[in-house]
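ENTRY TYPE: paired fold submission
RECORD: A
CONTENT: sequence, then structure tokens
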Amino acid sequence: MDEPGSGASLREVEVARNALRSRFVAIVFLLAGVFLLAGTCVASGPGGLSLAPAALAAPKAAAAPVAVGDRLGAVSSFSQGYRCLPYTSFSIPKGTQARALVMHLDGYAVTYTARPSHRGLEMLSYPGSINVSNGASSWRVPPPADPNDEYFELGALCAIQVMPRMPPELLAEGYWGGAHCCYGPTIYQYSTAAGGYRVVEDLTKPHVGDGLHWDPNGGFQPVKIRGEVLLESSDGAFAYAFGCYACTPAPTRLFTVASGRLLDVTTSYPAVIRSEAAGAWKGAVQSMASAQGAGLVEGPLAEWAADSCELGEGAQMWRTLEQLQAQGRLSAAESQSFNNKEPFPAQLKAFLLKNGYCKGQL
């Protein structure tokens, strides 16, 4: 058996893709001839509108994270952690019939065994066989219900230790290998009552889990925030909604597993949301600073608007959008949009409400 890498290494291919996307957006803004005034995000337009809403002027103190359900337990000295196999370890030598990978976390061994995928890229197929053991006991992890694709390959495998001396939660993802698409995650939790692993969420089929704010283009990845390991994704509904894929950033979503369910706990981490909102506003200001970049403003404004509503600041956000519209700062984007047929604020409002944002605030 192979034990590739150590620590919390994540799938390198997805990281590289995200880095390339970030560089592309930065290059677009650079070519647009964007300049910030005095190194800040403040710009004044017609009528004296300040492009730095008070809600974003200075970070507010973050609220303490909410401990959800059975995640943290009562052992104060215990530190949650996770480990992921690196994507580069998922290859399988040509002619090899099967390969087993193993990783260790807090006394538990997680073993993944699979044959080559049918895509001809010498990668391990998904699903394979997953087994968890601690030397004294062993548990076979149930496969996804029906990924229904012979070209599915292993895209990620992570173990997450959320309780001391308990078998870890597992994140296993299949990958189709298309452009911006697609990951099929399955999330598992050990059940003491059942004496084995159970499926918390099976998202291996397209359009399953549409009620979740997650991104099938990127799947999930563990992150540790203020001592708790969460599953991070982004809201896939934003892809191409207000521009090209790279031009439309999506709000971050944070999830936890509690009582056998996958729960969205993003709003329990306002500091994360506020930081992202500030970055999105900065991108919007950069776009509006030049005629060339003004056509790219809808994407970052959409992310900023969603984050603002998650912070309970939807009313102030909307007043700012109405001022921008009245001053004509959104007209360039509206005239260049390949997808939008009406003024941006109206479209954005309908989009946000449809996708569960800003209810009771607009």
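RECORD: B
CONTENT: sequence, then structure tokens
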Amino acid sequence: MQANTRIKPITIQIKGDYWDSYIYGGKLYLWNFNQDIEIIVWDKLIENLSKKEEEKSVLRHAFINCKDLSYKRLTSEKLSDALGSLTQKSITITKEYLKSHTIKTIKKPLKCLPTGIEFTEDEVYIADESGFYKTDRDFTKPKKMWDCRLLSIKSNYYKSKRVSLSAGSEGLFEYDDLINNGDKDGKKVEKNIHQITEKHSSFSDWLYDGIYNTSINPYSSFWFNFTNKKEPKLIQEKDIFKKQSCQYISWGYKDKIYGVSNDGMEEVSIKNGKNFDAHSRKPVLNGFLNQKPISAGVGEFGKAIEYENGLVVVLDNNEHYKIASDKICNWRLFNRSKKYLNQLHVVFEDKVVVYSLNSWK
């Protein structure tokens, strides 16, 4: 098997009617349509899926800890056999098997289904149609931090107590648990919450100390740079990509900004966390992206792009394929995780599918 060889994802299907899925600290959290949260001991569930040691090693790396390299102890032949067996089938988790690994069901911790979920070491941040909440991982007595309908939230990967808040036509906001707005730019709207811009915000993510705002509305996507006082703080999408053709959507994460247009996909690098490097602009993928995306994200394995009728994954080597061709309820990447960087969770109307996308070396 050649180094850096990409393979088809290993998939696990969890039968049931769910709204959202989150994995953290060895536990899987499933939100059902009754607004309850089912908490599953994920590590034990995976360990019990197979009695074959070769498959156990592969499954540990795929679903328990992507840094676990126990599969490397397998011979090429045994690894190939185990991979072949696991990638050619979708592992199905029945309701009975799931129930046997469920340790707790939390009854309606909030009044509405979540629109955003972020786990950190200390706390869980949740957004729904009624507002923005903070709670512990047992979801005891969620505390309402703000009375505003939010479409999406995202915690900072360096400073987890900072959360970007996308509120649609209300604009983009930031929650900072450590600062009470004393030295923050923007309009204070609540304790620890200030408005960054009134421009429309569909979702957002962090570029170093700044936030990239993505909007489905034209001319509303931009990079808000907190660190560089000499440059304009708000850098528009059109100034980053210099595109004359139709720009469908753009988004950012860590040190890259991505843009999808009718020409394909481009990426731009951030230099020293402060400025975008105009010379780094390069095409990532040409063609095929002839639909308008509605959401996108970045994982360890590449990019995920959602359309009205499906989800496409673009791997780092520019290979791409459809993960889903049906309408989905939700999907989630775990790019802030240490152990689940290779996972993509997709929630359909009748099941949750957990994809493990790996580079087997």
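NOTES ON RECORD B: Helices lie at 42-47, 53-64, 76-87, 95-100, 237-241. The chain has a mean pLDDT of 86.
STATUS: closed
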